[in-house]
Amino acid sequence: MDNSQVIFALDVGTRKVMGIAARKTGEGLEILASITIEHASRPMLDGQIQNIEEVAKTVLLIKNSLEEQLGLKLSAAGVAVAGRDLITHRSKARRDFEQEQEITQEIVKDLELEAVDDILSDPQKNSANFYCAGYSPVYYELNGAKISHPLGHRGKEFSCEIIVTLLNRAVLDSMFSVLKFAGLEPINLTLEPIAAINAIVPAELRHLNIALVDIGAGTSDLALTREGFIYAYGMVPMAGDEITEGISQALLTDFLTAENIKRSVNIKENIAYEDIWGRKQEISSQEVKDKASASIKKLAQVIAENALYLCAQKPEAVIVVGGGSLTFNLLPELAASFGLPLERVGSRLPQAIKSLKNLPPQLNSPEAVTPLGIALMTAQSQGLNFIEIEVNREKFRLLDFKQKKDILGALTVSGAINNKRLYPKPGPAISCYVDGELKFVKGSLGQPAKITLNGREITSLSEKINPADKIEFQEAINGESGASTLMDLLNLKPGEITFNQRPGTYFPPVTVNGQAASLAQAVMERADIRILKLKVKDILASQGIDTQTLFERQILVNINGHPKVLTQSNFSLKLNSAPCALDSEAKTADTIEFSLNQPTHYKIKDVLKIPARSHNLRIRVGEKDIEVPV
After folding, report:
1. Contact at 8 Å (CB) between 438 and 385?
2. Going along 125-241, which residue ranges are E strands?
3. Contact between residue 498 and residue 591 where contact means Cβ atoms under 8 Å apart
4. Nearest to 161 by CA among 231, 83, 223
5. Who has the most CB within 10 Å: 268, 324, 438, 453?
6. What angle (nearest 5°) sits at the alpha carbon of residue 85, between those of residues 81 and 87?
7. How far is CA 569 from CA 410, 533, 542, 583, in A?
8. DSSP string for residues in 340-392
9. Which of 348, 351, 343 is closest to 366 using CA atoms?
10. pLDDT tens-digit profile of 15-57?
11. Largest Cα–Cα distance of the chain, in whole Å?
């Protein structure tokens, strides 16, 4: 037999593991072999794997047994997980065509996966710590009208709404670890209630308001139908083990003994057992029922409360599957809790699944519904496939979107970019005023995230990823706040000035908030910067001359009745060979001559314009007349 034709489905339950080998034929799914093995201990609690190695040993026993029966090697398996910590979201996707297009299976699948990806890629959904465990379409619309079977129809606008189920990564990672330990690759993944309802509640029954309850040992999973579609999923963290533990406590036995007592109730009138002291005991089945009645009623009430919360109205029927559904007195308690007649609560057996061929008698039981559903979904590729990649040296599994998953999607789903930046935020600018005009010093742009794929820097976030790819991600670095010195901000040009025959360059003075400032000073937020005119005294100060010690005064003289102001000083100062004041403006190409040894004073002849003739000139100075020969 060709290995590629064989489908291997695994239902890893809290109490037992069932493996089914089947082959897809033109008439449906042919069952080749099956085996069920109970865990030797309690390596799972409430549907969650606690001891990976112990669970893997049981899976490996099943795999080896089926390989021996069929004479072939099994390397891959379809699996389902219980809805522990289940989160559900609704998502809608739409596709528009330029011309009328025939709706194919590929178009439907791509649109459904697009809606799944919208949830997984939405940072507000906080799905980084969750895996998608499965999804179900709520409805399809073609050209704005709802349609239950879009395949083969034509239209220009096609949309669908789906329910996406998310489970904590730890739940699926532990399942993947079990499969890896057993030498199996997961080729198809789904949620247990999805597998069960797809198998036992076909499309032609989904117009009814039905509550499907998959009661296992650790969890009771819910799926609800109405108006032709599955519209809600749920999970109750209670199931058959609650009853077993109640019996164990009442009779003081270990868990396995209590489990055997529970299973014997409907087939034996009196049940013999040993208590925790090893003493032989015997109890009637009716007594066991009485002792377990409170636990059974509580389980039924919790299941009903959760189902009624999800559907907001009483279902028309309740279908129960799973090994826990065989618990004595459970169906009447469920009917009472749902407020339904007993005839509206019951099991549908696998013999009702039309696509199954060669169904052996041992699989025609409620506990085989889910594993058979897993096999059917694996054969039809209706579940989800995963690829394994590495992000920042940590391994992650992503949904395989048929080579449509890109680097951005991988970073989002892995959580590597949660609360982190792909692109930098520019640093804030500094604002200031320069001579009354508002100026800004821009911050730096920062550095974008560094992302490499298999050691190579990527060119685009839309680059596609493949199994075993390695991605390294370094968060973007934000830009720094604006920073500048006065020199860099003002871009001042120095004046070329000669001082005492030595040429040099001199910058105009600058004040910040009214105080003299160095050009090397940093620009501060909201600073009021003023550029002053370059004066002669500024150049003297730059030469180390203390201008505070320079004495300079003005005197007033009258010449022929005309007043004239003269400046006297204890120094000599000339600008371009002409006497000047300390506050005189200096410009480029100017020449300044300065000396402390030549104080400035004036003689009468320095301030008068004397006519060119020879005689005495009488001058009154104060109250005294003076004659000056000319």
Report:
1. no
2. 130-142, 145-147, 154-168, 185-191, 210-215, 220-226, 229-236
3. yes
4. 231
5. 324
6. 95
7. 82, 23, 20, 13
8. --GGGEE---GGG-TTEES--GGGSSGGGHHHHHHHHHHHTT-SB-EEEEEET
9. 348
10. 899 999 999 888 889 999 999 999 888 888 877 888 999 999 9
11. 163
